[in-house]
Every structure is written in structure tokens, then in C-alpha cells.
Design goal:
6-stranded mixed sheet, alpha/beta, 2 domains, 24% helix, disordered N terminus, Metallo-beta-lactamase, Chain A, Oxidized Rhodanese, domain 1, 22 strands
Length: 436
């Protein structure tokens, strides 16, 4: 019996990957506390970043002509299943170090990568899975997982391979409503579930703004339309290094005004926001709070004095790294600037809600926002209590390796361009913008 399966039970329906969702079906595997019982089966053998109305699942048929057997599931279809809470067992067959970087929320790990690639026909031996619940195998690109799914089907499981693997999953997203007490606005947190990128749709009256858009622009357009909002403003907190900004695309799609922090090193036109500048959104306002350190132009946005969108300046359990595109000495200068920015943030009301630009964990389909009061964040990050020199030394010693393609991502974001072909080739992998 594989770890993580014993003592679970699940209800399911036979036509799992076709038709409308079953009323009251169980939640995604291992994610929302649904009970599964691990038993061996007794017999039988929209793109992830597209808006809800245009997502269409796809499956690859094994063979042509007669009744085709579906062997793959695309990331958009899996995303929809998890969002609707349908029963599905997501089985990650990658190496442990690869999984530690990023994973699908609620997935279970079974390290069979080497055995699968060695052609071992017994690679999936010793694994018991829930009776009836369909299995989706996952690897980096969808190759090893296809072999794993084939072996499971031979054992009688209803198994599918995630087409494109974790690279395709990097575009999957979900949402959570953020309650901001005392604010004249509604906030929707849009999360790239595998990468942990967090963006925000802020609406009041008939207008809305989007902060740090990181998924397909049509996602935000449709979310706004569902709520009766017109997107009037699009803002970035800084030039991002871990993902491609969709700000320029979103502004072109919606006709919104495009904003960047004053002095942002980009080559496309934008409306600059200096320290203290305000943007009206219906009955609410966003005020720019200059917070350099992670980058020179980094700016946070304060909503009605009640919530702070911190970008990569402050996370819930860490602070932004100051070393990207910097010599050791320049990184220390940026760390000193970051220390001053954080001192400024900590002077805000302790009840201010911190809404960061990233989280270090996969974001489950739980509709629970990634957010915390400033007082809780301060208590949970001892680094925030250090003096400037100690702060600088700690950041210098503990910065993680940068993301593999960050220099090319920064170059594209400065030009406001998208790469040719599949963006997941650049964006795959966890974000590495935090220290602490």
C-alpha cells in the first residue's frame, strides 16, 4: 500500500471525463479532506489558462477508426475537474527533488521516474489506488507519465496521462474571493496554482483594475464581465523575473489604461505612478507606495488604507530577493533599500491585509485566499525584526539560485512582448523571488 492512500474512500461516477459534473461529487484527490479508501480495482480495464466559457477538454485517442480509447487529459480539463470537486487521483511519478520544486495541489507522489525510463514493466508495482476514481499520472513533460498510465491501465485502472506534464500545468489557475473589511471594493485573487503566482482583480461600482496579471488576459476579462465590471486599469508592481507579464496584452484587449511604477525600465508606453499617486476605481482608490529593493521600481498598492498589494516586496513568510541582475555589492545596496521599504510598510495599520504577488506552495482549489494581516506577517518573519546590516548579511547568504530563464523573461517583460510558441518553455518551474 503506497503512503498517503490508506483509510480513504471516494464516491465516483463512471463517465468521469465526459458530460456535466455530478451533483455533490467528491472533492479533488487529497485536496479538500474528502475520504478515500485505497483498494485495487476488481475488474475492467480549454487550455489551462483560457476563460471558463471557452475551455474545452481534449483527449488523445489511441489508434484511429473504431472506438478510440482516451489515454491523455489536457491541463484545462484537469483544472476544471479539480475546480468542480470531481473525484480524481493525481499521481506524480517524478523524482522527489523535481516534485519539491512545484507540484499539483493534492497530488500523491510515487517516485517511479528512473524505473519508467529504464523500461521496467514493473515500475508501478506496489501502488494501490482508490477503487473507481480515475487516475491522472503526471511528470515533467508527459512522457514518463504516459508510460505509467499505460502500465496502470494494464492493471485495470482507469488511468490518463497529463498531456504536456507540469509544463502544461504551469498555466492552470484558480480563484479566491478576498474579504477586505472596511474597503469599498471587491477583490478576487487569481492564482497560478502550480507556480504560485498571485494576481488580483479589484472592482468597485462598474469599474475594475487588475494587478500583476499572470494568466491569459481573457480570464480577467471574463471574471470582470461576470461581475458587471469594466477593466479600466492594469498595473504591475514591478518588472517580473519569474513569469511573463500579461499586462500589455490585457490593456490592449480591454482598452484599459496601462500603469507601471515611475521609472520602470520598459520600452513601451505606460502611465507612470509615482509615490503617493492614486487611481480611482469606482468608489475606491489605489495609492502607490514606493517600495524599492526587489527591483529599483518596485511599488506596492494600498487599497483604501485596508489592504496592501505587495508584489515581490513582502510575502507571507519571506521577503523579496534583491540580488537578481545585480553584482554582490549592488545586491547589498538593494537589500538596504528593501530594509527601508519594509520599515515603511510596517508602519501601516497592523490590521492591513497583506496580499502578496507569490506564494511558495501550490495553491489548492480551496477558495481560501493567500493573505494575512500585517501583524501576523511581521510575527511570522523574524527577519523583519533585524537591523539593517544583519538584514543585508542574511539576504546575501540565503538567496536561492535564480530561475533558469529569468534573464530572458525580464528582457521580454521590459519589451512588453510575448515569446513565439509555447510560453511554458520559459515559465515552467516554481518561482524563486523570495528569501527568508
Amino acid at each position: 500500500m503506497a503512503a498517503g492512500f490508506e483509510g480513504f474512500e471516494v464516491t465516483w461516477r463512471k463517465d468521469v471525463f465526459g458530460g456535466a459534473p455530478q451533483e455533490g461529487s467528491a472533492a479533488g484527490f487529497g485536496t479538500l479532506g474528502v475520504n478515500f479508501r485505497a483498494r485495487k480495482p476488481t475488474g475492467g480495464s480549454r487550455r489551462a489558462d483560457a476563460p471558463a466559457s471557452s475551455r474545452k477538454g481534449s483527449a488523445r485517442a489511441a489508434g484511429a477508426g473504431a472506438a478510440a480509447t482516451r489515454t491523455d487529459i489536457d491541463a484545462g480539463t484537469l483544472r476544471d475537474k479539480l475546480e468542480r470537486g470531481e473525484p480524481v487521483a493525481v499521481l506524480d511519478v517524478r523524482k522527489a527533488d523535481q516534485r519539491a520544486e512545484w507540484s499539483i495541489p493534492g497530488s500523491v507522489h510515487f517516485d517511479a521516474y528512473d524505473a519508467l525510463n529504464a523500461g521496467d514493466e514493473r515500475a508501478m508495482e506496489g501502488l494501490d489506488l482508490p477503487e473507481g476514481a480515475p487516475v491522472v499520472t503526471v511528470c515533467g513533460r508527459g512522457r514518463s507519465s504516459a508510460t505509467a498510465a499505460e502500465q496502470l491501465r494494464r492493471k485495470g485502472y482507469e488511468a490518463f496521462s497529463l498531456e504536456g506534464g507540469m509544463r502544461a500545468w504551469s498555466l492552470a489557475w484558480n480563484t479566491a474571493k478576498v474579504s477586505v473589511a472596511g474597503a469599498e471594493a471587491q477583490v478576487v485573487q487569481v492564482r497560478r496554482t502550480g507556480k504560485g503566482c498571485l494576481s488580483y482583480l479589484v472592482g468597485s461600482g462598474e469599474e475594475a483594475a487588475v494587478i500583476d496579471p499572470a494568466v491569459d488576459p481573457e480570464v480577467y476579462a471574463e471574471l470582470a464581465e461576470e461581475r458587471g465590471w469594466r477593466i479600466a486599469h492594469v498595473l504591475d508592481t514591478h518588472v517580473h523575473a519569474d513569469h511573463l507579464s500579461r499586462s500589455r496584452m490585457l490593456a490592449e484587449l480591454t482598452g484599459a489604461k496601462l500603469h507601471m511604477p515611475e521609472g520602470a525600465p520598459v520600452s513601451y508606453p505606460f502611465s507612470p505612478l509615482g509615490d503617493g499617486d492614486e487611481i480611482p476605481i469606482g468608489a475606491t482608490r489605489l495609492r502607490a507606495l514606493r517600495t524599492p529593493g526587489h527591483t529599483a521600481e518596485s511599488t506596492s498598492y494600498l487599497l483604501d488604507g485596508k489592504a496592501l498589494f505587495t508584489g515581490d516586496t513582502l510575502f507571507l513568510s519571506a521577503v523579496g530577493r534583491p540580488d537578481l541582475e545585480a553584482s554582490p555589492e549592488r545586491a547589498r545596496e538593494k537589500a538596504r533599500a528593501l530594509h527601508g521599504s519594509l520599515r515603511r510598510v510596517l508602519k501601516l495599520d497592523p490590521e492591513t491585509l497583506v496580499l502578496p504577488g507569490h506564494t511558495g506552495e501550490p495553491v489548492p482549489f480551496d477558495e481560501e485566499p493567500v493573505a494575512a494581516a500585517l501583524s501576523e506577517v511581521q510575527e511570522g518573519i523574524p527577519l523583519l525584526g533585524e537591523g539593517e546590516e544583519t538584514f543585508v548579511e542574511i539576504l546575501a547568504r540565503h538567496a536561492p539560485p535564480p530561475a533558469e530563464n529569468y534573464e530572458r523573461i525580464v528582457k521580454l517583460n521590459r519589451a512588453g512582448e510575448q515569446p513565439e510558441g509555447d510560453p511554458t518553455e520559459l515559465e515552467a518551474g516554481a518561482n524563486r523571488c523570495a528569501v527568508g
